């Protein structure tokens, strides 16, 4: 949870077009240092696209992404970021996907070491020590020599979280991290995320887990049709939504 009122990650007027279809329409958002921000809304609302724009896995058609004192602005004749800008942004913004995205030909340990060596320039022993620290943290130290295909979905997702944490990011982005998992296994991932939140990790989470958004999040944003239609305290938004589209969405997912 936030201990200081400092904006750390910001999106300013993000738009994203795929051909003639506008998927994101002038989306702005601030995250305070140490906060957990949840993004909820119906399928096809643009939530995952927005998250991918935050570390430029998807390039916005226009808009600005800021982290700390560093900013990248696209549009008005500038359609791509430089390699140096991308490296700086991704060095500070980790991401966990719904589909794990582990290298199947590398062991669990190698998956976590590779990013450290390539991105941070750590030597093999430094990367190995850090990897074991993180595997222990997510309860998978005994799986270090296994290949991802021999791990369960929940174990693979915990490895993916450890891999992102190995780069010591300032912010973590989670894109529906439990959607490919059964509820019991998903609860394990949410428990890891709760621990990160308690330790003060700044997090942006696209999720369908309303309990997590309500109990762990500092703020919730409701996205519909590529726009933020409502933002606020999770308890307030969940129990007394002001926007009709939010009420419709919550009625569908909460059955009320």
Structure in words:
With 256 residues, the protein is of the alpha/beta class. 38% of the residues lie in helices and 26% in strands. It contains nine helices and ten strands. α3 (108-120) packs across α4. The protein is globular, with a radius of gyration of 18 Å. The two termini are 29 Å apart.
How would you describe this structure in keywords?
256 residues, alpha/beta, 6-stranded mixed sheet, 4-stranded antiparallel sheet
Classify the beta-strand content into a percent band: 25-35%
Strand order of the largest sheet: 6-7-8-3-9-10
Secondary structure: number of strands? 10
Find the structural class using helix and strand composition. alpha/beta
Briefly summarize what is shown:
The chain is α/β, with parallel strands linked by helices and 256 residues long.
What is the secondary structure topology, with strand pairs?
Blueprint: E1 7-18, E2 21-32, E3 36-40, H1 47-54, E4 62-67, E5 70-74, H2 83-92, E6 93-96, H3 108-120, H4 124-137, H5 153-165, E7 171-175, H6 183-198, E8 202-206, H7 210-215, E9 219-224, E10 227-232, H8 234-239, H9 244-254
């Amino acid at each position: 949870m936030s201990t200081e009122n400092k904006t750390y990650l910001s999106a300013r007027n993000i738009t994203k077009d795929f051909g003639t279809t506008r998927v994101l329409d002038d989306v702005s958002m601030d995250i305070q240092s140490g906060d957990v921000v949840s993004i909820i809304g119906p399928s096809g609302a643009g939530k995952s696209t927005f998250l991918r724009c935050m570390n430029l896995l998807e390039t916005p058609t226009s808009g600005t992404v800021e982290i700390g004192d560093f900013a990248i602005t696209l549009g008005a004749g500038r359609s791509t970021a430089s390699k140096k800008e991308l490296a700086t942004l991704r060095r500070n913004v980790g991401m966990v996907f719904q589909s794990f995205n582990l290298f199947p030909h590398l062991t669990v340990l190698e998956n976590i070491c590779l990013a450290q060596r390539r991105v941070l320039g750590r030597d093999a022993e430094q990367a190995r020590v850090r990897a074991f620290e993180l595997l222990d943290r997510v309860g998978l130290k005994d799986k270090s020599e296994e290949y991802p295909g021999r791990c369960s979905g929940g174990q693979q997702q915990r490895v993916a979280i450890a891999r992102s944490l190995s780069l010591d990011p300032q912010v973590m982005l989670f894109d529906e991290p439990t959607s490919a998992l059964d509820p019991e296994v998903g609860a394990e991932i949410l428990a890891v995320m709760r621990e990160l939140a308690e330790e003060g990790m700044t997090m942006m989470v696209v999720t369908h887990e309303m309990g997590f958004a309500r109990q762990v999040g500092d703020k919730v944003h409701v996205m519909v049709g590529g726009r933020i239609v409502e933002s606020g305290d999770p308890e307030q938004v969940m129990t007394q939504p002001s926007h009709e589209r939010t009420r419709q969405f919550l009625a569908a997912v909460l059955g009320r």
